[in-house]
Write a structure and sequence with these properties.
The protein is built from 1 helix and 6 strands, in the order E-E-E-H-E-E-E. By secondary structure, the protein is mainly beta. Strands 1-2-3-6-5-4 form a 6-stranded antiparallel beta barrel. It is globular and about 30 Å long.
């Protein structure tokens, strides 16, 4: 995880299918993973590693849009 970037959740949109981070980046979440991300909260700490977003030990597939 040496090159992972850190950010926090600013906003969860579309029942977890879209996440805006505090750095202004917007991420599209796979429908399969939106079940998990819809439970994420504002200010949760997130690690960004290529096309993966992680919160604690939970990692989801994401695509920057």
């Amino acid at each position: 995880k040496g090159n992972a970037m850190k950010a926090s959740v600013k906003e969860i949109q579309d029942s977890g299918k879209s996440i805006v981070l505090d750095d202004g980046s917007k991420w599209s979440i796979s429908s399969f993973d939106a079940f998990n991300t819809r439970m994420w909260m504002r200010f949760d700490n997130i690690e960004i590693n290529f096309n993966k977003l992680s919160r604690g030990n939970q990692t989801v597939d994401a695509r920057r849009v």
